[in-house]
Every structure is written in structure tokens, then in C-alpha cells.
Amino acid sequence: MAKYLLLKHYRGAPAAVNDVPMDRWTPEEVTAHVQYMEDFATRLEGTGEFVDGQALAPDGMWVRSDGEGRPPVTDGPFAETKDLIAGWMIIDVDTRERAIELAGELSAAPGAGGEPIHEWLEVRPFLGAPPTITE
Amino acid sequence: MDRVMDAARLRTLVPAVIGTLGRRGADFAAAEDAVQEALVEAVRVWPDDPPRDPQGWLVTVAWRKFLDATRADTSRRRREVRVEEEPAPGPAPDVDDTLQLYFLCAHPSLSPASAVALTLRAVGGLTTRQIAQAYLVPEATMAQRISRAKRTVSGVRFDRPGDLATVLRVLYLVFNEGYSGDVDLAAEAIRLTRELAARVDEPEASGLLALMLLHSARRPARTRADGTLVTLAEQDRGRWDQALITEGVAVLQAALARDRLGEYQAQAAVAALHADARTAAETDWVQIVEWYDELVRLTGSPVARLNRAVAVGEADGPRAGLAALAELDPGLPRYDAVAAYLHERDGDRAAAARLYAEAARAAANLPEREHLTRQAARLNAALRG
């Protein structure tokens, strides 16, 4: 029983095996890819392992406080930002091995030519609740 | 019964009602669903119209729900199934329905997460929503986890004794790894373990109950108002719950007298020795080391070895603790935290600061990470002078 965040990157991950930008795929390949992701989430709901999944727009902005009584400062997006998150899925699984297995499956979503992308996904464990018994 | 039962008492009736439906011929999954529906109706109806016999009421309503569901099912499938409207109560049970339910819900074919969810629903009588909130997952996900678990055990016969070790493991998980939502899972684990210990002739069930009671006793002192952790040595022992300690020690002594030691009794014995010390300095670390020796002998667990190294450090000094630690795998969870503690006691504050920072990076939860970060910060500030 541990939650993991599977992170998909627009930029910043090592290059995928089938590394063709999505806008060069055929429309059918895009549809097949989206369908694979949806089926994957549905299947995880069925196994009782799905927690949440969201996609993110690539164009964000940077915001910081500029002191009390002043509006926050906004900036960006910065083209040079190396790490850009495309979306996430949160899973709740029994073991680390299961998290790796599922990330592997998600990474095999079809891309250009209908071939699996084999993209790198970042897998990050959640910090959980402290156990009651530690001694 | 002339007054409304509270939800907690209502839930205690659930296993027996599921058992009664089972003896009347309902399969476990359908019986469990029907009882959940009856619970919902009880919560709605009882405040205005409390039944004299709550359990009888639940059996009647749950059986009706079961028949309704069966009819709906059969008509959907256009199949004829004869179902008795008023079945005979069946032969007097020679098995304990509630106990069988514990075994079924913790069946070895289930994953730990599934067994926990099914136990909380079918034995604990919690709703799917409550369980989902407690474990921070969507209700739909928890519903699927439970229905899959039910399918997994659908072929299991209801009338054979099961594996007590897996039941104890599941209850331990509910107690130890429970998140906190509206439902107090630690209290729920204690309730279910108490019920179990009364039904089986097994000192380990009592050992687990004692372990839970003794750790629960420290709960008021374990965290500050802001949620930060207080180490055992720093806890205000005046805030420990003496009633829980008294009960835990009594339960443990009765279990130990049976002379069938197991891992939960050994862990409870350690907790009892801590509970026995009025101040941290009065702790009988020599005896605690002996109990960890037993625990290592019983389980071979690396975590027990790590905790033993801490105890050795207290009993025989930090050098001895570090020597015990040196025999263990540095990749163990909390290894760096233990090493940091022992190095500081040995006077090596620079090593301790570095190891606390390492330990913070590897911590598996936020309160522990913050605690370890503060330890590193405290030592670094002292080192800067």
C-alpha cells in the first residue's frame, strides 16, 4: 500500500526509443495513443490501484511573491526550462515492483508508426504517514 | 433495546449478520452487499424507530435485500431460481461465523491492500467511502478493490479454519500503516483484534492486542500540537494513557504465561518495558536487548536487528551499538538515522550531522523527514559555533 507518482515529461526526460514528436504522428496514431492512456487508467480503476491522473498544458508561467501589499510577479514561460512536466498519474500499489511494472506498461503507449514509444517516465514514491510502531 | 445504537455499536453486529445470511445459503459477496445496504437503512430508520432486537432487525432487512438482489439478478438473466422466502434458521452453527469471516477477509490469496480493505468492510462494517477516505484513494477505486477481493475469495469454503498469521498481519497493517481520516483506524484495529483474541486460543493474538494497546497509550505524547514528532526519550510520560498500559501489560502477561512466544508478544514486551520506565533514563535496556534477541531469533527480521542495535547502544554504550550496526545492511530503512544517533552519542557530531541529512533524504514520510532535518540543522548550527 504505497502511492507513486508517474510523471510524464514534455522535456527533460532522457530520449524515448521511438522519439518522434507527437505533431508528426498520423491522426490515427494520436487517437490510438490517447485511447491507450484512457484504457490504462480504466484498467487501473478496475484493479483498485488508480488514484488520479491529469495532463498539463505546456505553457505555464512563473509566479513569485513581491512582498506584502504588492501583487505577485509573473514571468515566463521560459523556453530554456529543461524540465517540463506533461502530466501525471498517481497509483496506489502493494509494492515498488508493481509500480515499476505499471510504469513500464504506460511507457509502452503506441506512438509513431503504431510502435510503442518506450518513453522514460519518472516514478516518485509519496511520503506516507508515519507508522505507529517504529521500535 | 430502547435507544438508538451508535454507529460503532451497530458495526459490531455486521460479522454475525453476514454469517447468518451465509448459513441461509447466501454466498459471501452477496451477503456482504446485502448487509451493507441494511446498515444504510438502519442509519436512516433507527433514529425514529429503534428496533428492540437490532441484530434480528438487520438479519431480516439484509435477507430481504439479498432476496431483492437475487430476484433482480435472476430476472435480468431470465433464469429461474427458487429461493425460500422464510428459510429455516439452519442447523446450529458449529463454527464461529465471525471468526470465519476474519479468515476469509485475510485469505492468503489476497494482496495486503485487498485484505485490509475487505476486513475493514466485512468484519469492521465500515463503508467503502470511509475506507477510501482513510487510505486517500477515490471511492470508485476502493469499491473495485473490494469487489475484486470478494471475487478472489469467492471459491473459498466458509467453514474451514483459516490462517491466523495472515489475519494478525492484516490487523497489524491497519493499526500501523493506517492514514487518518474520519475513522480512527488504530482504534478500529484494536477493536477487531480484541474481538479476535477473545475467539481464538492463541497467545499471539493477545500479543498483538497488547502491542497495539501499549503503543496506543503513547499516542497523546507522540506528536506536538503542530504535528511534529516527539522521540520516545523526549515524550512527556505523564501523558501516556495509564489505563491502556495497565490493560496492555495484563493482556501480555497472560499471553506470555502460555509459554508460546511469538513476534507480537516479543514486540509487546519491548513496549511494556518502555511503558514501565517512569523516565527515559530508567529504561531497562538490558532486558530490551534480550527481547530483541528473541525477536531476531523468531523472525530474522532486519528491522528487528536494527532496533536491537539501538538498544545495544543504550545498554552497552554507543560504540557497542555502532559495532552491532556495522553487521547490518546500510541500505535498510532508518539505518542512517540510527547511525546518526549513535555517532552523536559517541561525540562525533560532524558524522552525525551528515548522517541525519542523509537519513532525511531517505525518510519515507514527512514528519520523520522534518524531524531528521531538524536534527541535522541542530548539529550543523552547533558545529558552526
Automatic annotation (TrEMBL), chain A:
Domain YCII-related per the UniProt entry, residue ranges: 15-107
Family assignment from sequence similarity: Belongs to the YciI family.
Protein name: Uncharacterized conserved protein
Organism annotation: Trujillonella endophytica
Automatic annotation (TrEMBL), chain B:
A Pfam family assignment: DUF6596
SUPFAM superfamilies linked: Sigma2 domain of RNA polymerase sigma factors, Sigma3 and sigma4 domains of RNA polymerase sigma factors
Top-rank taxon, per record: Bacteria
PANTHER family (alphabetical): BLL6612 PROTEIN, BLL6612 PROTEIN-RELATED
Family statement drawn from the similarity comment of this UniProt entry: Belongs to the sigma-70 factor family. ECF subfamily.
Annotated RNA polymerase sigma-70 region domain residues: 12-73
InterPro entries the UniProt entry points to: DUF6596, RNA_pol_sigma70_r2, RNA_pol_sigma70_r4_t2, RNA_pol_sigma_r2, RNA_pol_sigma_r3/r4-like, WH-like_DNA-bd_sf
Gene3D superfamilies assigned: 1.10.1740.10, Winged helix-like DNA-binding domain superfamily/Winged helix DNA-binding domain
Domain DUF6596: 164-255
Identification of the protein by name: RNA polymerase, sigma subunit, ECF family
Molecular function as annotated in GO: DNA binding; sigma factor activity
Key words, A-Z: Sigma factor, Transcription, Transcription regulation
Domain RNA polymerase sigma factor 70 region 4 type, residue spans: 102-152
Originating species: Trujillonella endophytica
GO biological process: DNA-templated transcription initiation
